[in-house]
């Protein structure tokens, strides 16, 4: 679930239609939206894809229009049902986002195009889960409504210099992580960068719950395969431990009002030696961390992660053929290699990155995928659940609600959504 507060770029590609067939010149317009920053691996890859699209369509003029991610997240159903809808866009995956739009009839069924272009041979196994939705908008089966072409996962970033200064070993278990944070707190340092106003804090609570969870637990929660008990051992541990971490000073109560950018800057500027967040931050860290050495290590056990955001085509797109051409370019070896070399996780692998850190990011996804440790993201199950989780976890941070009360709060909209989809 990507939840990055990055600019959405609307790319207006203008081409002369029908020229190759000798027909009259009719101007065609393709709107392309994506919300990746230029410093991210995906941003670099999509910039290359645009250049390759232009090379394949020499009469195309590119015009950029910037929008905010939060604006699109909240207004996508309305925008995609209007004349202002783009022809193709990068959009969040999961039941609450792409699944909802598919159920509402706002997205194009891509199944035939996926088969014709062989994308189902490139996006395989669990990576197909978030691309396919049934008639209720539930992921994992049914028709293709999107095409992912990268992957992502949550892990632990750490400041190597700070760990060395205080004689702390790299944490590979939860006990080692808490022991490391205890040492930082004893030294007067708040160890964990977080952000309660956006996705990081809710993802952290989910990560903690996952340490007590199983694949069946994930499937019941994410794919509605069975009953979900929000007061079971996993959810109770996640909420209780998060509150305990705040109480112990592992993360600041002030983080309740912080955004993801604030979290990232706290780590980048060396103020917080640990950050638990997604692989989408990798490119930013490579570019902006100047004063210390840093590394990453996998979260122990299951972790939030999946195939990345998808290219979707609105039902009302007037230039679906060009949209499909652009998607195909993003799946091509040169673009996938550019994504890999910039520290992203390509779904189409053509060798290894030369940079050791970038190779580690890709190889770690291979470990998670092979060991079946990817558990999607906490806000996916229900429309509007992102905001519900943000609000609930904020109360854990401030101590204005008990863990049990918070779990009751997040159970209600989940159960209401189950009723809406007939489960």
TrEMBL record:
It holds the Pfam family SBP_bac_1. InterPro entries: Bact_solute-bd_prot1 (IPR050490), SBP (IPR006059). Coiled coil: none annotated. Gene3D superfamilies: Periplasmic binding protein-like II (3.40.190.10). It comes from the Bacteria. This is Extracellular solute-binding protein.
